[in-house]
Specification:
- Helices cover 66% and strands 4% of the residues.
- The chain is mainly alpha-helical and 739 residues long.
- Among the domains are: 367-599, Tetratricopeptide repeat domain (Serine Threonine Protein Phosphatase 5, Tetratricopeptide repeat, Alpha Horseshoe), CATH 1.25.40; 607-733, no CATH class.
- The radius of gyration is 33 Å and the shape is elongated.
- The protein binds one DNA strand of 10 nucleotides through helix 6, helix 8, helix 10, helix 12 and helix 14.
- Keywords: Repeat, Transit peptide.
- PPR repeats lie at residues 167-197, 198-232, 300-330, 331-365, 401-431, 432-466.
- It comes from Panicum miliaceum (Proso millet).
- Residues 647-739 form the DYW domain.
DNA sequence: CTAGGGTTAG
């Protein structure tokens, strides 16, 4: 090609100016000028939005040589505009009889690294048919990359092995592909075999270990690299910093920070982000703030995001918010971090307000936003709002992914919709260990322990390795459904088969299961042999079981320890008080009362709440403050009447106040959960389940009464209290105990 | 003209 008489544009804007000059001077019809324009425009492309312009220039050219096609393909690659245009270009090339060369396939394979597998294989076949020497690194390296990106590591490996003379990039591409797939041992082995170990190979391995949660090995890798004499660069340091923040190793982080100065590594934005993130996650927020103040307050949102997320993770959302308010151009990540921060601090209203504010910044919610909000809906039991979010998936505003669908399963489960959660789960394409765990946990706390265990079996049959979270779900299933033998089996298997060390949560489930089954001695043996100090959950399980199984001495012991851990927890005093009353130890009981008064512990009032038309209604016992009190009382009378007509006798035996039987019945009827359900019955459409929340445990009488209400009114009723999830339907409850 | 990393979610 002859040297162009025109200047070379360095931006899209300059290219379009040259375009205008060419058009007005009539030179646009001159193919070499247009070719020059297309070529230099291609060098300026970095986002899909100008790809159409480049391709329109291509269409204007009368003659399409191999070089021009290759340039158009290069434009597609630079603009990262997907695989559709490249494939069309390739078809036109073949129809026009234009010969493809090595560059053609080089660009095609790179464009198609995220395309459908069938298409990729067809392109590979087309390449083989051209009789080009396809094992040269110019073609083979992108081919390895494409197969590795698809997850077809065997095909990638075959392409790699067929290269007669491999260059450094071939080795690095192969090692990087294996590392990205999580095949870290293979990647490491290849690195050892490679003629040259460069920074790029080491970095992909470091990042691979870090992503796989093997952060210690990532750091080892970094050290091996240094002792191998390979100088770290900015990218390598970013990788090892992220491993460091996972390890929460502040000393290591500081030494890496020092290394950056020592080796004069360029302080890029990414490095600033990684440093701020590392200091924040390692617990030195002051240092993170220092770096941010020194270099992070530029125009770019990334360093702001890192420090804002750091404050959110510490629970200091208001500090995070004040930084947020100082920003000029927050991006989606800023909003997501702030929204998640609010949600984790229970400030759902603030989260929602920010979500609505996103529109004003012309930002669209993405998967992260939707997942966070789904989690909020799950913890609120806000099914209608959760469904509204689902609509955003159906309208293709966000792409379905594993996180999203798992959050959806979790949301349905926490709202008591086991059937809908199951449908979502069955329909989803990709599952991982979190999805299975969410499903098993959901079935467990909806009282379907047996089904949960069936899912656990299927999970293992499908080849998924359960992790410690999965086992918390499995053991919860056993304890909530009193599956003693299964619980023992899985507790043993998690150690022997999967080499997972039980954490306090696992012991908690086992102690609960044994205690509920009346095996309090065995439960206590477990408590004494476990390698950590028992926490309040464990003593709580023991104490509750003592009431049912009438073990006063053990109850006293458990309560004593529990009160050391949580001296202000009124429920403990009440529990022990009730145990003494049950066994007619009046003196001991009154001592507890005195103790509470001495220590100034007040019994927190029980309350229940329900969300109707996006408004939360809260009731305490005998509540008269609601504007609909009149209707509610009428409905409660109706409930009392209907319960009585089917022979229901209120369970008054647990009431220890010295009043007559009728007063006891009256008191029970005025319990907040019954009032809330009465309000739900009159205010919610009949097809909706009644979903209420309670801050304390549901009492025995309410539990039995609600069972009957669900049958008499043919309504699903879901009650979440502080430790159980009760799903009432047609006279039964998913949770057949209430202590 | 090729290869590696990164703040937000279940």
């Amino acid at each position: 090609m002859p040297a162009s008489p025109w200047p070379t544009p360095r931006s899209v804007r300059q290219a379009s100016q040259l375009h205008a000059v060419l058009t007005t001077s009539g030179k646009i019809v001159h193919p070499p000028s247009t070719g020059h324009l297309l070529n230099s425009l291609t060098n300026c492309l970095s986002a899909p939005r100008h790809l159409g312009y480049a391709l329109s220039l291509f269409d204007r050219l009368p003659l399409h040589s191999t070089f021009i096609f290759d340039t158009a393909l290069r434009a597609c690659l630079r603009a990262s505009g997907g695989a559709d245009h490249p494939v069309l270009l390739f078809r036109r090339m073949r129809r026009g009889g234009v010969r493809a060369d090595a560059f053609t396939f080089h660009f095609l394979f790179r464009c198609c690294a995220r395309a459908r597998p069938r298409l990729c294989r067809m392109l590979h076949a087309a390449c083989l048919r051209t009789m080009l020497p396809s094992a040269g690194t110019l073609v083979a390296n992108p081919l390895i990359h494409m197969y590795a990106a698809l997850g077809f590591t065997d095909d990638a490996r075959r392409a790699f092995d067929e290269i007669p003379v491999k260059d450094a990039v071939a080795w690095t591409t192969m090692i990087g592909g294996l590392a990205k797939m999580g095949l870290l041992d293979e990647a490491r082995w290849l690195l050892v075999q490679a003629p040259e170990r460069n920074v790029v190979s080491w970095t992909s391995l470091i990042a691979g270990y870090s992503r796989a949660g093997r952060a210690a090995e990532a750091v080892d890798c970094f050290n091996s690299m240094l002792s191998d004499g390979v100088a770290p660069d900015e990218v390598a340091v970013v990788g090892v910093l992220s491993a460091c923040s996972r390890l929460k190793d502040l000393d290591l982080g500081r030494s890496l920070h020092f290394l950056i100065g020592e080796k004069r590594i360029n302080m890029s934005d990414n490095l600033v982000v990684a440093l701020i993130d590392m200091y924040a996650k390692c617990g030195d927020i002051a240092c993170a703030q220092g770096i941010f103040d020194a270099v992070g307050r530029g125009q770019k949102p990334q360093p702001w995001n890192a420090i804002i997320d750091g404050y959110c993770k510490l629970g200091l959302v208001d500090v995070a918010r004040s930084l947020f308010d100082q920003m000029d151009t927050p991006d989606v990540i800023t909003f997501n971090s702030m929204i998640t921060g609010y949600i984790h601090s229970g400030r759902l209203r603030d989260a929602l307000l920010l979500f609505m504010q996103m529109r004003r910044h012309n930002l669209r919610a993405d998967n992260f936003t939707v997942v966070s909000l789904l989690t909020a809906c799950a913890s609120l039991g806000a099914l209608p709002q959760g469904r509204a979010l689902l609509a955003s998936i159906e309208q293709r505003l966000v792409e379905e992914d594993v996180y999203l669908v798992t959050a959806l399963v979790d949301m349905y489960m926490k709202c008591g919709r086991v059937d809908e959660a199951t449908i979502v789960f069955q329909r989803m394409g990709e599952r991982d260990v979190h999805t299975w765990s969410a499903m098993i946990a959901g079935l467990a706390f909806n009282g379907m322990g047996k089904v949960a265990l069936e899912y656990f079996c299927q999970m293992k049959r499908d080849g998924f390795q359960p992790n410690s979270v999965t086992y918390i779900a499995v053991l919860t299933a056993c304890s909530h459904s009193c599956l003693l033998n299964e619980g023992r089996l899985h507790f043993n298997e998690m150690r022997s088969l999967h080499r997972i060390h039980p954490q306090i949560e696992h012991y908690g489930c086992m102690v609960d299961l044994l205690a509920r089954s009346g095996l309090l001695d065995e439960a206590m043996d477990l408590v004494q042999t476990m390698p950590m100090q028992p926490n309040a959950v464990i003593w709580g399980s023991i104490l509750s079981a003592c009431r049912v199984h009438k073990k006063i001495d053990l109850a006293r012991h458990a309560a004593e320890l529990l009160l050391k851990l949580e001296p202000d927890e009124d429920a403990v005093y009440v529990q022990l008080y009730n145990i003494y009353i049950d066994s007619r130890k009046w003196v001991d009981a009154s001592r507890i009362r005195m103790l509470m008064e001495e220590r100034g512990v007040k019994k927190t009032a029980g309350y229940s709440s329900i969300t109707v038309a996006r408004q939360v209604h809260k009731f305490v016992v005998n509540d008269q403050s609601h504007p609909w009190t009149f209707e509610i009382i009428a409905m409660m009378e109706e409930i009392a009447h209907r319960l009585k007509s089917v022979g229901y006798a209120p369970i008054t035996s647990k009431i220890t106040v010295d009043v007559d039987e009728e007063e006891k019945e009256q008191a029970l009827l005025a319990h907040s959960e019954k009032m809330t359900i009465a309000f739900g019955l009159i205010s919610l459409p009949p097809n909706l389940p009644i979903h209420i929340m309670k801050n304390l445990r549901v009492c025995e009488d309410c539990h039995s009464a609600i069972k009957l209400i669900s049958k008499l009114w043919k309504r699903e009723i879901i009650v979440r209290d502080r430790s159980r999830f009760h799903h009432f339907r047609d006279g039964t409850c998913s949770c057949n105990d209430f202590w």
